[in-house]
Fold:
Amino acid sequence: MTGQDDLFHPVTELPDHTRRARYDRLVGLDEVKLRLRKEALLLADPTRLQAWAESFHHGRIAALDLFTDRAPLFVFAGDVGSGKSALAESFGCDLADQLNLPVFLYRLKLATRGSGLVGEMTSLIGDAFSHLHTAGRRATGPRGINSAMVFVVDEADALVQSREAQQMHHEDRAGVDAFLAGIDSLVGTKIPVIVVLCTNRVGALDPAIMRRAAATFTFTRPEEQQRRTVLAAALDGTGIHAETLDKLVTITGPGPDRPGYTYSDLTQRLVPAAILNAFPDRPVTDEDLLALAELTQPSPVFTEDSR
Amino acid sequence: MTGQDDLFHPVTELPDHTRRARYDRLVGLDEVKLRLRKEALLLADPTRLQAWAESFHHGRIAALDLFTDRAPLFVFAGDVGSGKSALAESFGCDLADQLNLPVFLYRLKLATRGSGLVGEMTSLIGDAFSHLHTAGRRATGPRGINSAMVFVVDEADALVQSREAQQMHHEDRAGVDAFLAGIDSLVGTKIPVIVVLCTNRVGALDPAIMRRAAATFTFTRPEEQQRRTVLAAALDGTGIHAETLDKLVTITGPGPDRPGYTYSDLTQRLVPAAILNAFPDRPVTDEDLLALAELTQPSPVFTEDSR
Amino acid sequence: MTGQDDLFHPVTELPDHTRRARYDRLVGLDEVKLRLRKEALLLADPTRLQAWAESFHHGRIAALDLFTDRAPLFVFAGDVGSGKSALAESFGCDLADQLNLPVFLYRLKLATRGSGLVGEMTSLIGDAFSHLHTAGRRATGPRGINSAMVFVVDEADALVQSREAQQMHHEDRAGVDAFLAGIDSLVGTKIPVIVVLCTNRVGALDPAIMRRAAATFTFTRPEEQQRRTVLAAALDGTGIHAETLDKLVTITGPGPDRPGYTYSDLTQRLVPAAILNAFPDRPVTDEDLLALAELTQPSPVFTEDSR
Amino acid sequence: MTGQDDLFHPVTELPDHTRRARYDRLVGLDEVKLRLRKEALLLADPTRLQAWAESFHHGRIAALDLFTDRAPLFVFAGDVGSGKSALAESFGCDLADQLNLPVFLYRLKLATRGSGLVGEMTSLIGDAFSHLHTAGRRATGPRGINSAMVFVVDEADALVQSREAQQMHHEDRAGVDAFLAGIDSLVGTKIPVIVVLCTNRVGALDPAIMRRAAATFTFTRPEEQQRRTVLAAALDGTGIHAETLDKLVTITGPGPDRPGYTYSDLTQRLVPAAILNAFPDRPVTDEDLLALAELTQPSPVFTEDSR
Amino acid sequence: MTGQDDLFHPVTELPDHTRRARYDRLVGLDEVKLRLRKEALLLADPTRLQAWAESFHHGRIAALDLFTDRAPLFVFAGDVGSGKSALAESFGCDLADQLNLPVFLYRLKLATRGSGLVGEMTSLIGDAFSHLHTAGRRATGPRGINSAMVFVVDEADALVQSREAQQMHHEDRAGVDAFLAGIDSLVGTKIPVIVVLCTNRVGALDPAIMRRAAATFTFTRPEEQQRRTVLAAALDGTGIHAETLDKLVTITGPGPDRPGYTYSDLTQRLVPAAILNAFPDRPVTDEDLLALAELTQPSPVFTEDSR
Amino acid sequence: MTGQDDLFHPVTELPDHTRRARYDRLVGLDEVKLRLRKEALLLADPTRLQAWAESFHHGRIAALDLFTDRAPLFVFAGDVGSGKSALAESFGCDLADQLNLPVFLYRLKLATRGSGLVGEMTSLIGDAFSHLHTAGRRATGPRGINSAMVFVVDEADALVQSREAQQMHHEDRAGVDAFLAGIDSLVGTKIPVIVVLCTNRVGALDPAIMRRAAATFTFTRPEEQQRRTVLAAALDGTGIHAETLDKLVTITGPGPDRPGYTYSDLTQRLVPAAILNAFPDRPVTDEDLLALAELTQPSPVFTEDSR
Structure:
């Protein structure tokens, strides 16, 4: 069986400082955060659902059966820089806090294709799920679970894109199938894992994958209020004026001919560039920020039209 | 010869509880269910047909000869989430009840492509049918059959798509051919097996496959009455009002710009999401369900236009 | 050299009961049947042609020379379900009767592609013809032939499709070439073999193949009289009324928006489905047949437009 | 080095009876036949050209130098059944008669692609030309040549198609290049070989190949007079009437909606089919021929539009 | 692990004479040059940023955290001949001067694809980054860094082109992924490396790559003033007149139907050709230059439309 | 390392008689011939440039530095038969005369692709340049060079076509890259080599290749005066009349619907065919030539539209 290092990027134990900071910086995603927290609670202790039904519905309700037939699969769809990958890789910090247990973050290597033999992709994906099963068994004990897992497939369209596309190679189809089999193998087990597929081409995912998703969340570029929150936090300590912040929020929003800034446009381009403009000779000024914001082009929108 | 585990997903003995529950939840498919039951009766005891002819037609009728020339092949065609795979993988429970015998469910791995050598697909498909023959011989004895088999090929278009498509690789054609040979090898044997091909792209199946099908059944998204039945069953115990159910049935139906909900949209998305909205702090309410139904997008229709 | 089992489906000695019954059920194909019978007579004893010339044309006529330059190749073209494959695989029964000799039916495996090395297709096709030569030598002796052969390539377009198609792979071209060489190797030998290529895409066959065909026969869906004959035979014993038969013949014919039934639509779908509708509780009725005939869609026409 | 049998179809020593008969049956190709005969004379004894110049032009003329720079390459272009392959494979009989020497016919296997390793095509084509060089050295001695060679590449477009086509694989380009190198290697040597490329897609040949051709001959379907000659020869002895022949010549010509018959349509289809219609019970009649000529479709024209 | 020589073009220690001269000849790129110099200062001593904040902003400012999350990745986008590759391969000379340390220039071989096994591309890119890590550890010591690195990927679109393109092979996607992983592995380390991707098809770069870029600089063909500077420097000593220089600047600019000259059009074509026109018999004249400038076509613009 | 014979067509020492004759027959290409001669002088003794600057420009001029940054690369672009390959393979004769040294002609085999392993193309191109370096070192000694080299890549588009083409395989891109690296490795060395790329699809060459070219020369079909010169030379001694020559020059020129004759149309088709028409029985006549010129189709123009 393929070793863990060939299947996943290095496995990370959560919470860790950097990812929790990222998680906290992600603003405006409360709905998704709450849903994931509830899913984690159920994974940790499925009996809570029955307890809830007894509290609020006088005992068992038929729909609870449906939960055992569900796959623990979530699709994060949205534009580049909209925070979907950042959330996928950091929400485990919140789960860890909620459950008071360690959460292990597994990120699939897209290179999961083996050393060249056709057919290996299939077995490698199979191996990845086998690892989750093995780790999942270790994570469960007579007194409940002792840890949980988050399994992230970033740029998932590369792996599980729709078989509608006529020109897809047989091998790729086999990869989709292996993934489907892996997801199905998790249904009904008590393995405490949440699988997240991130994609900026949700229309390219295979319908059989989409059908299995417990939920699909759509991420967008930050709204006005979100941009304000992000910029205020990032510029804290620079002493810029409130009206400059107002102007920045406006400038970085969408215009008639261009989209608004992404989260990463704000935090990885605009603010660092302003600082480097000033460094090392003078303080960063309101004018630096405004001038750069006028100049910096937001990341282009990832289009699906190229299909 | 390739081992069983490389050819099939784990073989399941039916009936089992989960699949029987699924079978029972599938509403509005009575015609298909009845036909499959009759086919099973004939597989278990072909002489019943002659007995019937004697009872009702004064002895042998010419058409009975045609049955020995038929392939035990059925095509389940229809949209994602229309229940075709669920039925294919669960109707064996009913057969088991009717025959009072175990029924073994074989599901072909689409990854049946070997470890990379061109040409292996062909031999692997051959091996899959060889397994059916071997198992079939064990299943038949001097006193009739002691078990039956259901062989399901899900997403069959990936395996046996039409050779009309000019760009198909030779290897894929060879796979279609191997499948044809496998089907033909079952004709006239007394092996108690029913083969089901599921596809959401029936137009993509090879005509030579279609020609051999004893019947092609088309599955659709649930009609109004079927949605009502499904929702009422799933929500049993929640105490929602009758008029809420009426509204849900309407909302989840097709609109001018969108299709109706699929079965899985109802049972794997809408209802669980409503429950998780409420959980763990309060009961699920009529408003939860109605609001979610307004928000939730039905699964997109799988189009064949991409050919 | 590749073994016979890798090259051909199991070789069948004709006549056998099933195939003779099929041959007899094929109605409306008298012209083809007669021509094939004559070809067989010449293969068995080429001197008959000279004898005929002497009887009817006062000795040798120049055209007889042309026969030695001819390939024993026939193309059966036509729609799915039109009986071309059924005839190709059964007319050997008639030859056997005519010649009073066994006739061996060889059916090429389309999977004739070897275990993955490019170039093997070529040598495998070469091996297939070598087998025919070897078998042919055994079949001929000092006192004439002791058996004859029929070599069928079904779905021949997959093997020998036109090199006009720009995107054809070099390997496939090599396969066409190997087939041409094989056919040419039979010209002028006394090997008693008839080669039949079946295709539903006659336009896709390579012109160099078509040029070598001694004749191309086009098969169509059954005409009114043929449908009547087929249905009457199949329903013999069921006691349906003459006017029901009339109606069935009409319903199963082509309509403004759809083609007529194929042979297999009649014998493998309509009639068995009617019987299974009735089975096991009641006799098949005229109404069963008429209702089903209204419902059953004829097989779609295989279009070549997808090129 | 690859053996001769893997490179060429069995090498044939000319003249032989069958091919000479074919050569004689090819009517209306006198220009090509004459040119090839002259080329052969020069190959056998290049000094004849100088002798001719001395006889008719008072000694050396500058243009004779150009002959040493020429490749012995001819392109036979034209429709399927127009006689180009038949001529290519039979004109060596005439050369043999003219030179009073044996002529060896080498026909390249299009399967010249090796056992699967990319790059072998190149070395195999190189080997084919090496064989010609080796054989050529044996064919030349102190007292002139003792034999000559004809090297035919049928369906040459498959081997040396234009590199204009963007989608051509690198390997195929390498094959063209190897062929160019082979042709160039013959220039200026005294090897008595004539290379003929036959193609029905002359527009698909690589321009670098076309540029090297000493001449390109275009073959067409038989004209009226040619059809008359062919039919009269083939039907000699059948006793058909002169006006029937006239009618046949007309019927087999091109019509408003269809092309005329090819040579092989006349000799391999129409006449043999008429004879088989009559055989074994009655003489072939004028009516047989006329009826069949009305029914038989001429071979379709090979179009290059599919590029 | 793959050796350094298979991964990179020969590693160059900067400064060296030739590249510094090139760097100095690159006019009009001051903004980029300054930014790269500042990035280098931070790489050499990240504490400078904090020191700056203390000097000018009364201590720590929140945005400094963002720097640890940044990738040291820059994209140089622009037309052929616009100087982007020349700058990428020479700015290390300036860094070396600024840091007073050697700077090592690593240029990725685009041929980083291994010896043919699919999947090796992935591991080779991984190896390339491993080399950077290894070299980076050697470059850092207890007393700060003792050298720095510049890692250039020229024609980067070939390596990391967008996965938007449907037809991209899985292997190529895996290469993008490996590159992403490599870039991510540098984030937060103290390895003194700057990664530069050069491309003339910036629209073809994968969005996930673009998102990680700290900055994207767009290079254009030289403006009027830049052409003047380049030409004056190159022609120094030839004695051409000032008005000739004016005319040359005009002629080499963009016209209605054509683009302006690139840097290399000026320095590698126009001027050397003028000199060779004169050499060896006479001095280069104003007329030579003007005539050649009229004749020489500027390099065509690299279009992205071919997607 | 791959042997020389696998990389290059047999290496030729120039001058030789045949190629010098070809070089002399190439009319109307004086500009290219002169430029190449000057380049050769500089290769043989780079100090001549400085000497020239001192003679005519009072010492060193800045532009001379640019020469050390130049690649010795020339692109010969133009239609089939326009003489570009002929010049590329023969101008070394002139260099040899000018330098009074042997000149070695290396012609790259387009088949430089190895025996099938992806990635070998890259190393083979690398090996080809290594050979040039090795030979170059032998060619240079303390007293200057003792020989020079010409390296010709005919049909260069097959090797170094533009990476703009989306569908190009990665391996092909790697080949372009290897070629770029090879060319760059020659810059600044004193290896006496001139590299010539011939192509009839100049638009298909990679921009990074084009950018490195010291000059691009465009070759066309012969103009009226050039046709006259060629024909007069070839027909010398035949005694044709002056007005016949005039007529031939006109007939072989471009017409409204067709292009003019190429050089090879004139020398390899028209004239030899006229001679063979007459041979062996009578002298070639003015009528022969005129009639043939009317009949012979000029070579079709190689179009780039097929991209």
